[in-house]
Fold each of these.
Amino acid sequence: MLFIAAACNNETKKTTATTAGNDSLYAQVQTGGIKVISIETPKGKFNVWTKRIGNNPKIKLLLLNGGPGATHEYFECFESFLPREDIEFIYYDQLGCGNSDNPKDTAMWNLARFVEEVEQVRKALNLTKDNFYLLGHSWGGILALQYALKYQDNLKGLIISNMMSSCPDYGKYAQEVLAPQFDQKILDTIRQIEKQGDFANPKYMELLMPHFYTKHILRFPVEQWPEPVNRSFSKMNQSLYVTMQGPSEFGIGGNLVNWDVKAELPKIKIPTLSIGAQHDTMDPEHMKWMSTQVKNGRYLYCENGSHMSLYDDQENYFPGLIKFIKDVDNGMFNK
């Protein structure tokens, strides 16, 4: 009995010591890295959702999802690669997406407002020029470029993943390079549906999915698309997507149709990684060219990938992304 009592006493001391050593951890309720941020907009206050994975004071990577209108969830594959490299990253559902508030007001779906939203999120998360890396994928790449053009002094590094710097050029690439790859009869049917504006016609996506999406969005058979991708895409805010992008990934027809910052790229001086893929909806040569136009650019080419090369060419995507971040962090970045 005395032995048991002594052992229990030792365990109590250990528990007390452990608790004392983690006073900061218990100083407030822990939420698993989740932080809901209140943002100001022209239509009032709304909440956006974020979640931190990892803890590195020197490297904090904020992820901007695509769509527009998808969710952070398709970035979940990052959890298999970045934590082991001690790279902290932050999920973030933009307003109208996923776990964040949805104002259900198309007047809110404009690029300038989203830029100011990102800046408010940066401030709330205490991200600074000493640790703040911004990765934008697809539409998120548009948002990241536009943010950097206004607020690059707050950034340590910029990653533009699978996005061109010109929507007119994106549309041209879709029509002149990708469209001719269709069987002519199938393309004619797609064109007829688009001409009629009958985008709710199930035939539209039935044709685009096997003949375009599985070739240029994610190069797996539809039944093998990863669960996080399906989960994210199933929650797409269609109002946001159609307002800004248009009805599909086959070109662009929303309010971003004339967006073009090619001439402004030389203004970006921070280390910048442009990621392109051979089978992307975006022209890989354009994305390579982007890396030569910014002051301190590098190009990462995913030879086996498509628009979602973070899934269908992980063996090129993640080593290149990790190397860029570590090179910048170590002061060893060069073009």
Note: The CA atoms of residues 19 and 26 lie 8 Å apart.
Amino acid sequence: MVREAGDIRKVLKKREQRYSYGLTLLRDEMERKGWKPPADEEVGKKVVLRAEDIHLAFGGLKALRGVSIDVREGEILSIIGPNGAGKTCLLNVMSGFYRAQKGEVYFNGRRITKWPAYKIAEAGLCRTFQNLGLYTGLSVIDNVLAGRHPHIRYNSVLSGALYFPWASREEVRQRAIAEDIIDFLEMHAVRDHIVGTLPYGVRKRTELARALALEPRVLALDEPLAGMNLDEKEDIARFVLDIHEFLKIPIIIIEHDMGLVMDISDRVIVLDFGEKIAEGSPREIAQNPRVISAYLGEEGR
């Protein structure tokens, strides 16, 4: 596959990997609830999320045709394919936004096929959206705090409404986690800005912050680089790598930027016309004739 000379791959090579301390409170909170980073022998082997024989149709249009994938502990998995291949549809099925006509989805050994989307998010399968799903009338910090909602414990609605001392302490604790995430994503300068007034790249970063606030056990990013310039792409790629290094969670990336996909992925799955046509390492995918044909056509091979 052909890449542009100035793609994200070359940018990443110029960057030294850095460790941000901005996710320390989030990781401590996850560990307090029993989460542990995967053991070395589990990384890339233990299946955390599995979709089996997924069929999805909208009337006569078949969006997915018997697609099966698994997501393994501690890996970065990219799902690629031409426009209309079914990538977002597959993610929507796994995260509960679509109901497949056939097939099953399992998350950490539990069948979640018919779970509502909010319950799947609470369980730890957290995602961003291709077209954004932010509260545009709220500030950045309020959007991130919205992601903390499933984890806030006031004991009762009345306690929160009357702002009893224990409710006040809980809000301070949750706000500290949200501020920690904002610091990690270097958004302190816009923390109080209304999201609807911000540039597109900053909104995408805000949505990533909200997904992190949900305490993901699996993080799914739907076209995180779409519509961004090279500097913004560099920042998001750096944050994705830092999240992976610090939390050790599986990350699913749906993306058209092949430079990013080939540079940071452990494994790549390719969809075309609703079917899985290839799966393997980035090197194997880049040399796969069916993948080249899907992107370039027979004459472009």
Note: Strands lie at 47-58, 61-72, 76-80, 102-107, 110-111, 125-127, 218-222, 251-254, 267-272, 275-280.
Amino acid sequence: MKTTPLRPEELRGVFAVPPLARRADRGRAIDLEQNGKVLRHMAAGGLRRPLYGGNAFLYHLTLAEYEEMLGWMAGFPDDHWAIPSVGPSFGRALDQAPLLRRHRFPCAMALPCSDPRDAAGLDLKEEGSFGNDKTAGLDAVARLVASGVCVGIKYAVVRPDPLEDPYLKALLERVDRRFVISGMGERPAVAHLKAFDLPGFTTGSGCLAPALSQALFEACVAKDWTAAEELRRPFLPLEDQRDAWGPARVLHAALELAGVATTGGIPPFVTAISDRQRAELEPTARTLLARERERAAVPASAQGARR
């Protein structure tokens, strides 16, 4: 895996945020074999920057599971990144820190926390994260970036219109946009990269269709916005279902229903989607995977004409 320090110019790209497969038994242990299938599927489509966080339900990992996951991630191929998450609470992060130090991850993502907090909490997940004084929070983030403690920001504030986002504009007045990536998948990605010139984006649905997600990014880099919008469109049915039923649990089921890997159960405190929802989700997931395979079957020299 990548072990060198992260430089801002390296944030240009797509960061996949996959689920964490578990065995479909009473213990629901992490299934490293099935997680390897997901990792290889993403890499085959060009996505080699996996970020394990909310979609992997890292909030609910035991320390023993966290240690097991880190050991597995540390063995990723040399051309892969491996980005684990920490927290969300301060105490939890302190418990996890000694386990992280055993390995040479280039960075770790701080999970958003909904506990009592203020500007020192450094959470950008919601605009109200810093209480009434949003400016103080953004100033604190800017200081962390300037000091080198923060090497990147995954911006994930949902807006009805991603082009109308005063909070993002205020952040970019304080932090060089090279440090900020769009953090909500393909839905706002084109708008964020076009209007705000952000260097990259995260994807959940791209774990199922990595080549399509990578092609979308490449179209944005080429400023072929028409092609980018066309490549974005196949993701929207799955994104709609994720927004309606829960992004992480729908993605967890989608990869299994499409036949990418057996993702198994999910941790307690989170319910799996219903049988009815699975029946509705399966054709959506399989259709997106079919589009992915169509893309992969086209020679690279001809893909520009078939975005």
Note: The two ends are 30 Å apart (CA to CA).
